[in-house]
Design brief:
The complex is a heterotrimer of chains A (about 270), B (about 550) and C (about 350). Chain B is mainly alpha-helical. In chain B, about 60% of the residues lie in helices and about 5% in strands. The chains are: A mainly alpha (about 270), B mainly alpha (about 550), C alpha+beta (about 350). Chain A: InterPro entries: bc1_cytC-su (IPR009152), Cyt_c-like_dom (IPR009056), Cyt_c-like_dom_sf (IPR036909), Cytochrome_c_Oxidase_Subunit (IPR050597), TAT_signal (IPR006311).
């Protein structure tokens, strides 16, 4: 402690305090920042529309209306189909916590059985895309390279080269596709959630959707290799520039400080 | 040794004698072998640039051995699976080959690119160091311009290099450049057709950029860099004020051996750090970006950082377009295209403005502390702020996604900040500088706060101040202070009105802004010092 | 010139230099005299031979390490396959070869540098030396000599006297670079009306970029986004890149009652509208379509267009609306173009009008 108080007038003391404060703030933020990992489990069951209707009345009707006809707070759900329900509720986007530019992905609050019941009820209101079967979205054997070309034509403009996400107007954004299950990617392409346009089978057949899913798995999956080293978020020159400045030039300046610094003198205590 | 010398000179000496007889190396060595270089970390920033430039040339030569600067369409059959069978240009294909099939090719590519980013970042910081310490003053104005040109040429060399792999990201950048060229009144379409050999993208630009990137621009840069270094040697290095350091000497260590080892060693340190970074962090992963197609794009399309401010300019500009007499003035693109060089020129011409305002024609070899020249420092910070605001604009989409903001709001922030932020930065910096000057004055007169609290017999607590030693006192007061220039009476002694030109008035005004009453804190005088130190009971 | 007049600035004397009218007076008054260079202090290595030995060993160790790293580099180059992927925490799955080569090369280089610098810092003399500076500008005698020499040379050449020679030489020198400029002419063709035409023409079907099949109106659903090119184009065409840079098309469907622009409605087919995919700002492929608002955003510079209102610009740096392609349906029921774009696609240019 004595040592500490003796050094608090050191010219670098302010820098040290600042660094400590920054580290503390960052640590606190990391500890309290809301985590957004959500994963739906895959237990499919058929359940009565009635069960879904009950769930709907409690969780959804305040915005979407008692019969799914929509209100000023939420669009009509007639004809959106089971796939849309499975995507929106299965990724935690619905039910909405608060009105905003866009519904973000969050913790899923219904289990898969309940989601299926809700989906059954909504699809009873009007025909729409049904939840895809595993055969439809399983990317095994799909053409990855073709998927890449399709991705760059149809998806990269919003979701970035490898699906890291990007900005849209007025606070809306295209989310990152990292860790999104093939089923949900398929459903999103099929139904066009929120402001995303849909890519129906008429213009993008099932096989091509599989190609895209396979490409995403290859370039942004768990086992994706980044041969050159740290991916730096896959965001391109901005993060590269930041890294170059902070770690590249930063470490070179640190080295320069060492090169030019005076060597310890013998007299010093 | 000396007896050895008399008999027969050792081999090394004989070689040196041989060379001297032909090249006159001894007179060169006489002047330079024990040349003195002052020690300060900020004096090594230029070396970072020099060494990263050498690294770029070495790795660049290696890359040319494998790169095919051609836009002929080929199908990919290399080892990267997600691009199998895709159509791409030979340029992209050969870059894929370098990255995946040439052993160590990826490393060299990454060293080349990382070194380029660091080269430009280094030049930026080096330039700022020279700026804020006033090292650009006479006799170094020409070298300042050489350095500035190197920075600008470095930007364009970087941009042409970034475009060579013909990937989707760089292709988008080239498209932007072509659109900007089209906006030039009268000759825009012609320039574009001539540059691209026809319509965009055509089949020529990679080959053309290649010769510009590997020959034309680096050739000019090499020449400028040699000239820059010769001038550094010729002028001898500047130094910070301190005991024993005057405007007529340079204090430091000799080139042989200390700086030979330090500067030579620093080359290896820089190369080593950049090589390690290239082992750890990926840069420009073209395989993830895919080959260029003019109908494809990715969000987050940005240039490398040094072009980021131009990206900011173009992003925040309102879409003005004037149609007159069957012609279009594309101001929404052309104005940013004009402001782009102006941003750079603003900082480049500053030294000449300052020397005009001060009218100072003497040589300056002792560096300023930024706080002692508040107006210059404030100008520099304002310029950096301006640059940074534009950089924010250039990355507005990533700011939006990572800080959950609206891209439109950021764009408006940048539009306003473009005009307002530099002014605020100027005022704030000037205040801070003056505050620091006051603190220096305090330190000189009252000594340094020791952190020791003492209780006086009557109960009062005081902090003990330690007086500074002579060297510190000298260092803190070594800077000279200018007096503002006066226009003088506008009427001469005979009552005849004297003509005062507008430029004289402007100069007087600027000079007042620099050195007027509230724009610098008068240095403590010896009398003040004596008065205070002889008195008692000071706190 | 005036450097001689400037006094020793570190002396505590009062000087005011006013060499010429209008230049700034320098009130140079340094109250605290320069004590001169502080005496040299010895480093530990200077007085303690054991410390010096330690330094020597450390330096030699670094040079040895560098040698080992180079051997490691060669070993890695020979033994690690180029496609070997390794997991290194916290970097992730990366190329083993790249990492090994970079690290060994980095270490080999860094150690040489670190050794040399450590040597300079701890063992080489650290006595600070002062070197005299001399003014950059020449002494007046030198200046006079140069001026006289130049004058003599200029006079001997008769440059100033024989104006005819001088002027014709200037003329010749001014003209000769023109050959170089003229040679640049064949860098590219003249613009003519190339920027005004695309591959679209009356009767060309709209071919889906994904499936390469012609599109029917029923394929395009409300809220969907489709990209098309003119029939007869192929990725293998030698001019595909140049043509698609102008012809790329973006197709959406908007309920006819939601289309605000009259011409847009007229040029659409049952709410299917086709717009150029190339941004009118600087030519990025714009296609960030928000299906609820019908806005498209450009990913490069954020120009925003309202597709339900003639694609007019509602935000950002673009200067005019996206060109719309007039479409209809042919007798087989496929969507077809009813002509080329009526205005040039892509960025504006001077002759655009």
């Amino acid at each position: 402690m004595k040592k500490l108080s003796a050094r608090r007038r050191h010219p670098l003391a302010a820098v040290v305090v600042l660094l400590l404060a920054l580290a503390a703030t960052g640590g606190l933020y990391a500890a309290f920042a809301p985590a957004d990992k959500a994963q739906a489990d895959d237990t499919a069951q058929s359940l009565a529309i009635d069960e879904g209707k009950k769930l709907y009345a409690v969780g959804c009707s305040s915005c979407h209306g008692t019969g799914g006809q929509g209100s000023s707070d939420g669009p009509s759900l007639v004809g959106v189909g089971a796939a849309a329900v499975d995507f929106q509720v299965g990724t935690g986007r619905m039910p909405l916590q608060q009105q905003g530019a866009q519904a973000p992905k969050k913790k899923v609050i219904y289990n898969q059985a309940q989601i299926d019941q809700l989906a059954a009820y909504i699809s009873s209101l009007g025909a729409g895309p049904s939840v895809p079967t595993e055969k439809q979205y399983n990317p095994d054997g799909a053409d990855i390279a073709k998927g890449g070309e399709l991705f760059r034509t149809n998806c990269a403009q919003c979701h970035n080269f490898t699906g890291e996400g990007g900005a849209l107007t007025h606070g809306k954004f295209a989310p990152s596709l990292e860790g999104v299950s093939p089923k949900h990617i398929y459903e999103a392409m099929q139904t066009g959630p929120q402001n995303m346009p849909s890519f129906p089978d008429t213009t993008m057949p099932e096989k091509e959707k599989k190609d895209i899913i396979a490409y995403l798995d290859a370039v942004n999956g768990e086992k994706t290799q980044s041969p050159g080293g740290l991916k730096l978020g896959g965001l391109g020159p901005v993060s590269e520039g930041l890294f170059g400045w902070i770690f590249g030039l930063g470490s070179l300046i640190a080295v320069a400080v060492w090169v030019a610094a005076r060597t310890a003198k013998a007299k010093k205590s | 040794m000396s007896s050895d010398n008399k008999k027969k000179a050792p081999a090394g000496e004989r070689v040196a004698d041989w060379a001297d007889g032909r090249l006159g190396i001894y007179s060169l060595a006489k002047a330079n072998m024990r040349k003195i270089f002052p020690d300060h970390w900020s004096f090594m920033l230029g070396e970072i640039c020099l060494y990263s430039f050498i690294i770029i040339i070495l790795t660049g030569v290696y890359l040319t051995l494998f790169f095919h600067p051609s836009m002929n369409e080929v199908e990919y059959h290399g080892s990267y699976v997600p691009l199998q069978g895709q159509l791409m240009s030979e340029a992209f294909n050969s870059t894929m080959h370098i990255s995946f099939d040439v052993r160590g090719g990826l490393l060299i590519r990454q060293i080349h690119h990382w070194a380029a980013l660091i080269f430009l970042a280094g030049m930026f910081v080096h330039m700022m160091r020279v700026f804020f310490t006033g090292a650009f003053r006479k006799p170094r104005e020409v070298n300042w311009l050489f350095g500035f040109l190197l920075f600008v040429l470095g930007m364009f060399t970087g941009f042409t290099g970034y475009s060579l792999p013909d990937d989707l990201l760089s292709g988008t950048g080239v498209r932007f450049m072509q659109g900007a060229i089209l906006s030039v009144p009268v000759v825009g379409t012609y320039l574009s057709m001539f540059l691209f050999g026809g319509e965009f993208p055509g089949g020529d630009f990679v080959a053309r950029f290649y010769s510009v990137h590997i020959l034309l621009l680096p050739g000019i840069m090499l020449g400028l860099m040699v000239a820059h270094l010769i001038l550094v040697f010729y002028h001898k290095h500047t130094q910070f004020a301190g005991p024993g350091k005057t405007n007529k000497n340079v204090v430091g260590m000799p080139l042989l051996p200390v700086y030979m080892a330090k500067a030579g060693g620093f080359f290896f340190l820089v190369f080593g750090v950049i090589a390690a970074i290239s082992a750890i962090a990926s840069i420009n992963p073209i395989w993830a970006l895919g080959p260029y197609r003019p109908d494809q794009v990715s969000t987050g399309a940005q240039p490398d950082w040094y072009m980021g401010f131009s990206e900011g300019l173009i992003r925040v500009m309102p879409g003005w377009e004037i149609n007159l007499w069957g012609h279009t003035l594309v101001l929404g693109v052309f104005i940013p295209l004009v402001i782009f060089p102006l941003v750079l020129v603003t900082i480049a011409v500053y030294p000449f403005i300052e020397s005009w305002v001060t009218g100072d024609k003497r040589e300056h070899h002792v560096l300023d502390r930024p706080r002692n020249v508040p107006t210059r420092t404030a100008f520099g910070v304002a310029w950096i702020t301006w640059y940074m605001v534009l950089l924010i604009g250039g990355g507005n989409d990533l700011w939006a996604t990572h800080f959950h903001l609206s891209i439109n709001a950021i764009t408006w922030f940048v539009r306003i900040g473009f005009f307002v932020a530099p002014v605020i930065a100027f005022i704030v910096t000037k205040r801070i500088c003056l505050g620091l000057q006051r603190r220096d004055k305090d330190k000189v007169l009252h000594g340094r706060e020791s952190g020791i609290i003492k209780r006086l017999p009557h109960g009062e607590f005081i902090e003990v101040h330690e007086p500074l030693d002579q060297g510190q006192l000298h260092t803190l007061t070594a800077h000279e202070q200018y007096a503002p220039v006066e226009i003088g009476p506008t009427v001469d002694e005979n009552g005849v009105e004297r003509k005062v030109s507008g430029s004289q008035k402007l100069r007087a005004k600027l000079s007042k802004g620099y050195y007027g009453e509230d724009n610098q804190i008068p240095k403590p005088t010896a009398e003040e010092y004596k008065e205070i130190t002889s008195g008692h009971g000071h706190h | 010139m005036s450097s001689q007049e400037i006094p020793e600035e570190n002396l505590p004397s009062k000087q005011v230099t006013e060499p010429e009218h209008g230049s700034v007076a320098v009130a140079d008054e340094n109250p605290f005299a320069d004590p001169g260079l502080p005496p040299h202090q010895h480093r530990i290595q200077d007085i303690d031979e054991r410390a010096a030995k330690r330094s020597e060993r450390a330096i030699a160790f670094m040079f040895m390490l560098s040698m080992l790293a180079t051997v490691g580099f060669i070993a890695a180059f020979v033994t690690i396959p180029a496609d070997k992927s390794v997991f290194i925490w916290p970097i992730g799955h990366i190329s083993g070869l790249n990492f090994a080569l970079g690290m060994t090369l980095g270490l080999a280089l860094f150690c040489i540098g670190a050794g040399a610098v450590h040597w300079a810092r701890t063992l080489m003399s650290d006595v600070e030396v002062a070197d005299e500076r001399h003014p950059i500008e020449a002494e007046p005698e030198v200046r006079a000599k140069v001026m006289a020499d130049f004058k003599a040379g200029a006079e001997e050449s008769q440059f100033g006297r024989r104006k005819l020679i001088r002027n014709t030489m200037f003329g010749a020198l001014a003209l000769v670079p023109l050959s170089g400029v003229v040679l640049l002419r064949d860098l590219g063709p003249l613009p003519e009306d190339k920027l005004r035409h695309t591959k679209w023409a009356k009767g060309k079907k709209l071919v889906n970029m994904n499936t390469h099949e012609p599109l029917r109106p029923s394929d395009v659903q409300v809220g969907s986004l489709t990209f098309a090119m003119p029939e007869g184009m192929s990725e293998h065409d030698h001019d595909f890149q140049t043509q698609i840079a102008k012809a790329a098309l973006m197709i959406v469907r908007i309920q006819p009652e939601n289309i605000k622009d009259k011409r847009e409605l007229e040029w659409s087919h049952e709410g299917v509208v086709a717009y150029s995919k190339i941004c009118t700002h600087v030519g990025c492929p714009i296609s960030l379509y928000e299906q609820q608002t019908h806005h498209v955003l450009c990913p490069c510079h954020q120009s925003t267009f309202d597709l339900s209102d003639g694609a007019r610009v509602i935000f950002g740096p673009a200067g005019h609306a996206l060109p719309q392609l007039r479409i209809g349906v042919n007798e087989e029921g496929y969507l077809e173009a009813l002509g080329d774009f009526e205005e040039p696609v892509g960025p504006a240019f001077f002759e655009r009008g």
